[in-house]
Amino acid sequence: MTEKIKKIAASKTFFFVFAFIIGFASVSGAFVYKTKKAEGYCTTTGGLYCFAGTITQVKYCCNGVKIKVSEPRDGTFLLTASSKVYMWWNVTKDQCVMGDANPGGVCKYGAKCAQTDQVDGIIRQIGTTLKGPPKGTCKGSMSGGAGI
């Protein structure tokens, strides 16, 4: 009888330890995966154009809003209806922003949207600050809110 109990206890212990190891590996693996994914983010291999900085110019187009972003990762981009805007939805001049864009695109404007301006990319996703940051904080300081 005691031998049977030992076998049952051993098998339950085995399954408990096994389940614990699998659970731990799953949770820790998710963090490792996210870290590696974040390190590889904003590279040219993904085909995305990444940007981060202060919005210096906003121009309304027939097909969206053209924004010009200053350094550290500058460029001109088109915000469209399909772009995901994350908190704080403040895409105005002097805001810190960061995000990524698919390369290429044009801003259509003027009478009957006949004129066009080339942009570096069409924004896929963008994050913004709540209110205007202190001057110069979009270049690495967390005090601006975006922490670019």
Walk me through this protein's architecture.
The structure is a single chain. The protein is α+β, with helices and mostly antiparallel strands and 148 residues long. The protein has two domains: 1-40; 45-144, OB fold (Dihydrolipoamide Acetyltransferase, E2P), CATH 2.40.50. Helices cover 26% and strands 37% of the residues. It has one helix and eight strands. The longest helix is centred in the N-terminal third of the chain and has 39 residues, at 2-40. The chain is rod-shaped. Residues 32-41 and 140-148 have low confidence and may be disordered.
State the distance separating the first and last CA atoms.
Answer: 67 Å
CATH class of the largest domain: Mainly Beta
Radius of gyration: 24 Å
What is the CATH architecture annotation of the largest domain?
Beta Barrel
Can you give the helix content as a percent range?
A: 25-40%
Query: Uncertain segments of ≥5 residues (pLDDT<50)?
Result: 32-41, 140-148
Q: Kindly report the CATH topology of the largest domain.
A: OB fold (Dihydrolipoamide Acetyltransferase, E2P)
Order of helices and strands: HEEEEEEEE
Q: Order of strands across the widest beta sheet?
A: 1-2-3-8-5
Indicate how many domains the architecture comprises. 2
Largest sheet: 5 strands, mixed, barrel
Strand content: 35-45%
Q: Quickly count the helices.
A: 1
Tally of DSSP β-strands: 8
Secondary-structure class: alpha+beta
Shape: rod-shaped
Average pLDDT figure: 74
